[in-house]
Amino acid sequence: MQEEFKDKLNAQLKVAIEENFTTETCIKGVSISSVKALEEHFSIHLPRIYVEFLLHCGAEAGELLDHSVIREYSGLVDLREEVDEMIAEEEISFPESLSIFFFASFQGTVYWYFLCDGTDDPDVYQMEEGVKEPIYFSKLSSFIIQAFKEAISELRYFSGKAPGLTGKFFPGK
Q1: 67: closest CA among 171, 152, 165?
Q2: Using CA atoms, how far apart are residues 116 and 171, in angstroms rounded to an integer?
Q3: Residue 64: CA atoms inside 13 Å, Cβ hemisphere, count?
Q4: Cα-based torsion angle of the residue sequence 37, 67, 69, 59 in order, rounded to the nearest 10 degrees
Q5: Which residues of the chain have pLDDT under 70?
Q6: With contact defined as beta carbons under 8 Å apart, do 126 and 135 qualify?
């Protein structure tokens, strides 16, 4: 599964490079020690798929991460603070026994997270402002690949290479 994920991730990165949305030198992963520091900061053990993502391109991927809902490594602590504010305002509660990790957001009103429960490729859930119950979204590996595909779609649109934005993150416009 991890090899299949890496192949799909590399395919999306290759498309982004070929279409000049990033360069090989702009694609940077984080170190194992950075992953461990993140795990210690949040008192969690990250799933293998997410660790692979961080090691491969979690620090930077040029415009690809800039246009994706996925947060790069440097923004993950701030993202959790942002989510905690919304959770308090919306009076949402999670059982304290759950190890939840927020890793993606859209316009400060939609957030995605997974449980750090020992699963290599966990389910991703969506939490949206004004909605009390989480919504199942997809497996983490599928989420990351879909987010990159849609970031490429957005970049094509803004560069004049495509007529419009569609997809899970960009409902038809």
Answers
A1: 152
A2: 29
A3: 32
A4: -10
A5: 1, 95-97, 162-173
A6: yes
- Check the CA dihedral 117-141-49-101 and report its sign: negative
pLDDT at 54: 96
| DSSP assignment of 146-169 | HHHHHHHHHHHHHTTSSS---SSS
pLDDT at 171: 45
Alpha-carbon span 173 to 77, nearest angstrom: 32
Q: Could you read off the pLDDT of 36-52 as tens digits, one per residue?
A: 999 999 999 999 999 99
pLDDT at 131: 83
∠165-167-173 over CA atoms, to 5°?
Answer: 40
pLDDT at 52: 96
For residues 103 and 65, what is the distance between their CA atoms, to the nearest angstrom? 12
Look at residue 111 in the predicted model and tell me its pLDDT.
92
Q: Token pair 């949040």 is at which residue?
A: 42
Task: Please name the residues in contact with 58: beta carbons below 8 A apart, sequence gap of 6 or more.
Answer: 29, 30, 72, 73
pLDDT above 90 covers what percent of the chain? 58
Q: Angle at the Cα of 43 (from 40 to 46), degrees rounded to 5? A: 80
